[in-house]
Amino acid sequence: VFSNRDEVGTKEFVNSLKKVAPSLGMSMGSPKIFMLTDNRPATYIQQLDQVIDMKPAIVMIVIPNNKGDHYAAVKKKCCLEKPIPSQCITSTVLSKPKGLMSVATKVAIQMNSKLGGEPWAVKIPLKDTMVIGYDTYHDSAQKGRSVGAVVASMNSTFTKYLSVANLHTNPAQELNDNMCPAIAKALRKYAEINGNLPARIIMYRDGVGDGQIPYVMEHEIAAIQNCFRAAGLTDDQLLFTYIIVSKRINTRFFKMNGKPSNPPSGTIVDDVVTLPERYDFFLVSQSVRQGTVNPTSYNVIKDTSGLKPNHLQKLTYKLTHLYYNWPGTVRVPAPCQYAHKLAFLVGESLHREPSEQLEQVLYYL
Question: Which of 178, 261, 279, 305 has the fewest CB atoms within 10 Å distance of its CB?
Fold first, then answer.
């Protein structure tokens, strides 16, 4: 779906998509194209209504800019009213002929993920394990309302996820009314797909400041464990690890042989500069071309999993490779980054809880 002034760019782009698809192992036919007479958000919505009723697998919408009103209108339609995977792209990107092929490659991967594909995977030898990412976002439209997003893995390669977002007004409600139903739902789905409940659950929690750690230890972990009990997992049979992830830290590391340089991606620091009274480690998971890399701090608050620190660190690093919107590593494990992206979409554009029909695909990338 595109407006008349973007006709040339869109057709070029569709051709580029067809060119890159085979190299990514995807087969792509010619899409049905719909040209709009103007680019008002209302025109887009009318056309979308007709297009979605034809029941396509995914709709691609070329929007004039990233100011947000077109995007929000499109996402409200495609995530709330008539649930369908949707891919937006701005015409500014299409009008630059230079990087078109690489844009096409990235968009093809993104569309593949939104349809439930797995563009790549990493070997992870843990059986019956569920990884959960949890993040919050404060709604831009209404003060005091925030969004919590829970993203839980559904298979042994950690490439398929169930994503649930909730809106809440106060922290106590966040735990009991939102996080627990989401986790319960994830456990039910996991059992449906795999025929058994996970034996090990690892939870990465983003969006907690240092000052909130005692609160989290007292309330949140207790609430989560009650939720596991309610789902039929007893404390003695469940291996549970709870890790607080923080990106906003001021620690920096350098490699000192000759000129100070950035440590390579995958560097773990878990001694000397970490706190003796807690089980924590720093992981450098991005590689940057410019500037200093930002390590991420992982604070393991509770761990009954019996995994060696070494294994937990390797797993964490491997999970930073599984974010499909970026071809390398991201700063936090993929489930966290997905939860962040989902909470952001809901808080920034939707302001409502998304439809259940899409929760098994990464529709919010």
Answer: 261
